Amino acid sequence: MHIVIMGCGRVGSTLAHILEDKGHSVAIIDQSPEAFRRLRSGFKGRRITGFGFDRDVIAEAGIEQASAFVAVSSGDNSNIISARVARETFGVDNVVARIYDPRRAEVYQRLGIPTVATVRWTADQILRRLLPEGTEPLWRDPTGEVVLAELDTGHIWVGQKVAALEEAAGTRVAFLSRMGEALVPAPDSVIQDGDIVHIMARADDVERINTAVANRVEEDH
Questions:
Q1: H or E element in which residue 83 lies
Q2: Picking from 57-61, 117-121, 196-200, 204-208, which range would have the lowest pLDDT averaged per residue?
Q3: CA distance readout (Å), 201 to 15, 115, 209
Q4: According to the per-residue pLDDT averaged within each range, which of 61-65, 91-95, 135-139, 208-212 is highest?
Q5: What's the confidence (pLDDT) of residue 219?
Q6: Is 210 helix (H, G, I), strand (E, B) or coil?
Q7: 3-class state of residue 147 by DSSP
Q8: Which of 117, 128, 189 minimizes the C-alpha distance to 157?
């Protein structure tokens, strides 16, 4: 694929290197020529000096042939405007914008522009390290309504089928972490000792799910 990146900061340059290593062609845009110093000497992609929301600049970067556009400059307004130009003017379906203000991120997400709200994401990661395990979700969507969370199943669920847990909790298991590896379970998969169960659910439903799982009484007792 050809991918256009706006912003050659730490995130943009890292993405450019990773995407190029994966065999994609990359064009990266930044208003400062000095920013391109972050790119390694062997970088083969295009370096375009200018603003990512300028139609001539974005066209020079090959947006008409692009399969994706990423806006990761330091400005929320620049990122969202350039993302809209890529989507609405040039018809690029796969567009992502980094937004620092989580309130803006929620608005643009609802308008159909995928966003990464860096402030909220960073805060969540810090809270997960400060507070007891499982207090904060592993991931939440920009609206804050859907989360990926660890489920504290305890020993009572060891040896039980995933389907039984899903029925008791009224939710779906997204995946299990077993011996450091991720496993997508089938309904008849059995929960083993040491498994970490991850669920995808509405944020306001997680407490109910945890309570339902914790209050289960073993059928054999």
A1: helix 76-84
A2: 117-121
A3: 30, 20, 9
A4: 61-65
A5: 46
A6: helix
A7: strand
A8: 189
CB within 8 A of 199, min separation 6: which ones? 148, 149, 151, 169, 171, 172, 173, 174, 206, 209
Cβ(83)–Cβ(96) under 8 Å? Answer: yes
User: Please, are residues 150 and 128 in contact by the beta-carbon 8 Å criterion?
Assistant: no
Structure tokens at 78: 């620049």
pLDDT greater at residue 206 or residue 5: 5
Please give the Cα distance from 86 to 179 (Å, whole number): 43
Whole-angstrom distance, CA of residue 3 vs CA of residue 73: 15
Give the Cα separation of 210 and 153 in Å (integer): 8
Check residue 221 and give its pLDDT. 42
pTM: 0.64
User: What whole-number percentage of the chain has pLDDT above 70?
Assistant: 87
Please give the radius of gyration of the chain, using alpha carbons only, rounded to the nearest integer: 22
In whole angstroms, give the CA distance from residue 170 to residue 45.
49
Q: What is the DSSP letter of 146?
A: E
**In contact, 133 and 99? CB cutoff 8 Å:** no
